[in-house]
Design goal:
The chain is of the alpha/beta class. It folds into 2 domains: 209 residues, Spore Coat Polysaccharide Biosynthesis Protein SpsA, Chain A (Alpha-Beta Complex); 71 residues. Helices cover 47% and strands 16% of the residues. It has an 8-stranded mixed β-sheet, with helices on both faces. Helix 5 packs parallel to helix 8 and helix 9 packs antiparallel against helix 10. It is elongated, with a radius of gyration of 26 Å. The protein starts with a strand and ends in a 25-residue tail after the last strand.
């Protein structure tokens, strides 16, 4: 069984054509396969298209989340529902070419348990976006010690053994791109040129990309906190130097204390650094709060297709409160 996991958010114009192209690729080569579409709280007709496909082809399964939980959580929901010996994840907008799926499977059959699809940016991609992507992955690799190649996204193949290990991670703000590289296992890669979006607009705004980048760095590295310590010590030295300067100036000239402008500038600088440190600390404390709450990372509203189930957390019941165990019925 080969599983293809596809998160979708307002992709009603792309679902059917993506299914048709994947079927064209998989039908002659793979005896058993399944497509798992995860509707991440779409407000258009995405879910209706998924239901229609599942009724016409039992190999199509669908999960509908109760609201928009974000791409990473929607992807995680699909991975939990996948039953294949190899699981491929890709986007629904056709920018991840279906033809590359057969290349991923070929490398998997060579013995690799993780096969990453590495994007080759063409001239059509804005220069700032190419630069920002490369800068982030280099910075992430430097801070976390987990090397991720530029152009890596959530277009990859995972062997069942690797996926089962990844699903054990229960941390909040799961950064799958980093986790996949962190777990190890024999890894290969294939390159592809990003295709054109078939229809609709990209849902990954600059704000969402920044949130994803921060989640990746903060979940893998304590370097930002350690940088705060170093800068805090450096700023303390600057402040102490200012105090010494003021005392010496007062000692030499009792009437006037020179350097008021520099004193105000130093104070403003130190307060700015202090508030920046507090913001970083607050982010980490906020992550601790989210971990302590232990809320589910997604909620499934409904499913479609044959045996379209997803792993759920067990619920313990007090036997004394369960009417089936009470002696009085």
């Amino acid at each position: 069984m080969i599983s293809i996991v596809i998160p979708a958010y307002n992709e009603e114009q792309n679902v059917e054509i993506l299914y048709a192209r994947l079927r064209e690729r998989l039908q002659p080569r793979e005896p058993q396969w399944e497509l798992i579409f995860v509707d991440d709280g779409s407000t258009d007709g995405t879910w209706e298209r998924i239901v229609m496909l599942s009724k016409s082809d039992p190999r199509v399964r669908g999960l509908r989340l109760s609201r928009n939980f974000g791409h990473q959580n929607a992807l995680l929901a699909g991975l939990q529902a996948a039953r294949g010996a190899a699981v491929v994840s890709m986007d629904a907008d056709l920018q991840h070419p279906p033809a590359v799926v057969t290349e991923l499977l070929a490398r998997w059959r060579e013995g690799y348990q993780v096969v990453n699809a590495i994007r080759i940016d063409s001239a059509r991609v804005p220069l700032w976006k190419r630069w920002a992507s490369r800068a982030f992955y280099r910075l992430f690799s430097l801070l976390s010690g987990v090397k991720i190649s530029p152009g890596t996204a959530d277009f990859r193949l995972l062997d069942r053994q690797v996926l089962d290990e990844i699903l054990k991670f229960k941390e909040e703000g799961l950064f799958l791109r980093g986790i996949v590289h962190w777990v190890g296992y024999p890894t290969a890669s294939v390159t592809y040129e990003c295709g054109d979006r078939h229809a609709g607009a990209s849902k990954y705004t600059l704000r969402r990309m920044l949130i994803l980048a921060w989640n990746g760095v903060s979940s893998f590295s304590l370097v930002p906190l350690r940088v705060c310590v170093v800068l805090g010590l450096a700023s303390s030295i600057v402040a102490f130097s200012g105090v010494v300067y003021a005392i010496v100036g007062w000692w030499l000239d009792n009437d006037v204390i020179p350097g008021w402008a520099s004193s105000v500038a130093i104070s403003s600088f130190l307060f700015g650094v202090l508030f920046a440190f507090l913001a970083i600390l607050a982010e980490y404390v906020g992550r601790i709060l989210l971990e302590v709450r232990g809320r589910p990372r997604f909620l499934v509203r409904e499913t479609t297709g044959a045996d379209a189930t997803v792993e759920r957390s067990p619920v313990s019941l007090d036997a004394s409160c369960d009417p089936r165990t009470r002696a009085d019925g």
